Amino acid sequence: MYSRIGVPVDLAHTDTLEKAIESAAVLARAFAAPIELVAVTSPSPSEVARDPHAFGEKLAAYAAELSRRHGVRFTAHARVCDDPTVALDRTLFEAFHELGVDLLVVASHVPGVREYVFSSNAGWLASHTDLSVLVVR
Amino acid sequence: MPNKKQAAHIDELAELARAEGLDDYTSEHRVGEDNIKTLGLDVHNPVFLISGSTIVLVVVFALALPGLAADVFGQWRVALTTQLDWFFMAVANLVLLFCLFLVLSPLGAVRLGGPDARPRYGYASWIAMLFAAGIGIGIMFYGVLEPMTHALTPPLSATGVTGAERRGLAMAATIYHWAFHPWAVYSLVGLSLAFFSFNKGLPLVMRSALYPVFGERIWGWPGHVVDVLAVFATLFGLATSLGFGAEQAAGGIAYLFGIPNANWLRVAVISLITFLALGSVLRGLDGGIKLLSELNMGAAAVLGVFVLALGPTWDILSGLVQYSGAYLRYLPELSNWVGREDDYYMHNWTTFYWAWWIAFSPFVGMFIARISSGRTVREFIVAALLAPSAIFILWMTIFGETAMNQYFLEGWQGVAKTVREFEPELSLFVFLERFPLTLLTSALGVLLVLVFFVTSMDSGSLIVDTMTAGGKIETPVGQRIFWCIFLGLLGVALMLGGGLNSLQALALASAFPFSLVMLLMMVSLYRGLRAERLLLAVAEAESEAEAELAVEGG
C-alpha cells in the first residue's frame, strides 16, 4: 500500500521521536518499504552541529543506529534551509516530495520550545500535501 | 607515506603555523548553551534580559523627563561629532584600506563556509537584499537633498568655486558619504561574523568576531557587553529611523494629498509599516525579505529610469564619468580631518554619517553575514563594495544632476527651498513636480519609502532575535513577532512622547564603542583568515601527497 515512508527528524530532540520511529519501523516491515529520515539545518552553527557538514554526519550516524536497532533500512537526508524558523515545513515537504515518499510518520507534541513547530508542522504537512500523514502522539 | 619533498613541505607549513602561534579558533562553546527556555521562549541569558529591560527603562526615562533626556543625550551627540571627528574618520579610512588589502592579498581566496560551500543566493538577490536591508532608504531622502545642499553651501570652504566645478564638488561630497566607506564598514562586520560562524562554527553573534582576541572569555562578560551594545544600537537605530521616517513619509503623503501632517497620520504610517513587516516576518527570509528587496529594486529602477529619460539624459550620463572622477579627486581632501575649516560639513554631515553607519553595522553586518555563506572573501568584498556604491553613484547622479539643473539652469527654487528649510521629506516630491505624471511618480516614491521601511523592520526583527538568542537561528517565530511589534511601539512612543532626538543620540553614542570593536575585529579577522589559509594549505598538501601515493600504489 505504501512504498516509501518519510519521517521528519529534529536532531535536538531525538528522545521524543522514539514512538514515531517505532511506528514507522513497524509499518516499514509490514509494507517492505524503506524509511527516509529528513532533518533540516541552517548554514550557520546550531545547537546540534557547528556546520551543515557535521549536521549531515550526525544525521547519518543516527540513521545507521536506527537501522541496526530496528532491522529496517533508514536513510538520512539532511537539508539546508536559510530560515528554518519559518520555512521548515516547506523544506521538509519539498524533500519528501523529491524522495517520492507516500506516507509520513510525524511525531507531534515534542515537549519544550519547539513544540509549536512540530505540532503545526504535522498539521501543515497534513493539510498542505497530498501525502498520507500519521501523527504520532 | 608521502615522499620526502612532500613531507618536508607539509612539515614546513605546520612549522610556520606553529611559529605564528596558530590557533584554529574553534571553541567547545555550543550555540544556545547559555539560553534559557521558558514560556515558549528561547533566549540568551543575560543578553536578552539586560538589553530588553534597559531599553524599556531608557525609553521610560526619555518619555517621563524629555527635557533632561534631551540635555544629557544631546550633549553626547555634540561631543561625539565634534570631539571624535578625527577618530571616526580615521577608523572609516582604516576599514576601507583593510578591505582593499584583503581583496588584494591571498587571504581573499578563503571561502566562507569552507572550500566546498556554494553561494545560496544569486548576485542579483544578494545585492538587492544587502541594499534594501541596509541604507537603501537613503536614496529616497537624500538623492535630491544632499547634492543640492552641497551645491548651495560647498564643503571644503570652497565658496568661491562656481559652475561645473561646484557641481563636481557637491556630487563628490555626496558620493563620499554613500559609496565605499559605509560599505567597507558593513563588509568588515559581515565578513567577520560570516567567517567565524560559517568557517569556525562559532555562534552568529557579534562577540564571536572577537574570539581570537579574547579567547574563551568572550562567552562571559566581555561578550555580553558587546552583544548588549549591538542590540541597543540596532533597536534604537531602527526605532528612531522608523519614527523620523514615519514623520517624513507622513509629510510626503500630507503634501501630496493636501491634508495636515497630524499625529494620527504618522501613527497610521508606523502601524501600516509594522503590520506589513509582520506579514513579511511570517513569510521568512526568502518569502518576505528577499521578495520585498527585489520588488524595491525594481520599483526604484522604474523611478530612476523615468527621471533619467525625461530629465537631462546627456548631462546625467556625462555626469556619471565626471562625478566619479571628482569623487576620486576630492577623496583625499574630504577624508582628511587635519586643518579643515568647513566644520559644519565635516561634523554635521561626515562625522554624523560615519557614526550612524557604524552604529548600524551590527545590524547590517549580521544580516549580510546571514546571506553570504559560499562566497569567497574577495567576491564578498568586491561585490559588497562595488555594487551598492555603483547604485548610489548612479542614483545620486540622476537625481542630483537633475535637481542642480532645475536650480542653476532653469532657475527653479523648489528643491532649494526644501534644502534651506531642511525638509528632506519634501525634496523628492517637490523635485518630481517638474515632471509629468507627478501624482503617479510621487505615489511610487511614497510606496518605495514604505517598502524600504518594511524590509528594514523585518530584517531588524530577524537580527535582533538572533542577537538575543545567542546566535540561534531556529528560534520560535513568536520571538521575531515580539521584536517587530516592540520596534513599532518604540517608534510610536518616541514619536508621540518626544525623544526621537535623544534616542537617536544614544544610538549614535554606541558608535564609539563599536569603532573600538571594529579595530579589534580587523586584528581578529586577519588572524583568523591567516590561520584558515595555512590550515587549508596543510590539508591540501596532505591530500595531494595521499592522492599521489594512491596512484603510485595502485
CATH level 4 superfamily of chain A: HUPs
Shape annotation of chain A: globular
Task: Give the domain tally of chain B.
Answer: 1
Count of helical regions of chain B: 20
Report mean pLDDT of chain B, rounded to a whole number: 86
What is the helical fraction of chain B, as a range of percent? Answer: over 70%
The CATH topology of chain B corresponds to Amino acid/polyamine transporter I
Number of distinct beta strands of chain A: 5
Largest sheet of chain B: 2 strands, antiparallel
Q: How many runs of DSSP E, i.e. beta strands of chain B?
A: 2
The named CATH superfamily of chain B:
Amino acid/polyamine transporter I
Strand content of chain B: under 5%
SSE string of chain B, helix = H, strand = E? HEEHHHHHHHHHHHHHHHHHHH
Structural classification of chain B:
mainly alpha
How much is the radius of gyration of chain A in Å?
A: 14 Å
Find the CATH topology of chain A. Rossmann fold
Largest interface: A-B, 24 and 43 residues
- Percent of residues of chain A in helical segments? 40-55%
How confident overall, as mean pLDDT of chain A? 84
Proportion of β residues of chain A?
15-25%
Pfam families (chain A): Usp (PF00582)
Protein name (chain A): UspA domain-containing protein
Domain UspA (chain A): 1-137
InterPro entries (chain A): Rossmann-like_a/b/a_fold, UspA
Keywords, please?
heterodimer; A: 137 residues; alpha/beta; Rossmann fold; 4 helices; 5 strands; 21% strand; B: 554 residues; mainly alpha; Amino acid/polyamine transporter I; two-stranded antiparallel sheet; globular
Topology overview:
The complex is a heterodimer of chains A (137) and B (554).
Chain A: E1 5-9, H1 18-31, E2 35-41, H2 52-70, E3 74-80, H3 84-99, E4 103-107, H4 115-128, E5 132-136
Helix pairs in contact in A: 3-4
Chain B: H1 4-19, E1 35-38, E2 41-44, H2 47-64, H3 66-83, H4 85-104, H5 123-133, H6 138-152, H7 163-178, H8 181-199, H9 211-214, H10 221-257, H11 263-310, H12 313-334, H13 343-370, H14 377-408, H15 414-420, H16 424-432, H17 438-468, H18 477-497, H19 500-509, H20 511-553
Antiparallel strand pairs in B: 1-2
Helix pairs in contact in B: 1-20, 2-3, 2-10, 2-18, 3-19, 4-8, 4-13, 4-14, 4-20, 5-11, 5-14, 6-7, 6-14, 6-15, 6-16, 7-12, 7-14, 8-13, 8-14, 8-20, 10-11, 10-13, 10-16, 10-17, 10-18, 10-19, 10-20, 11-17, 11-18, 12-14, 13-20, 15-16, 17-18
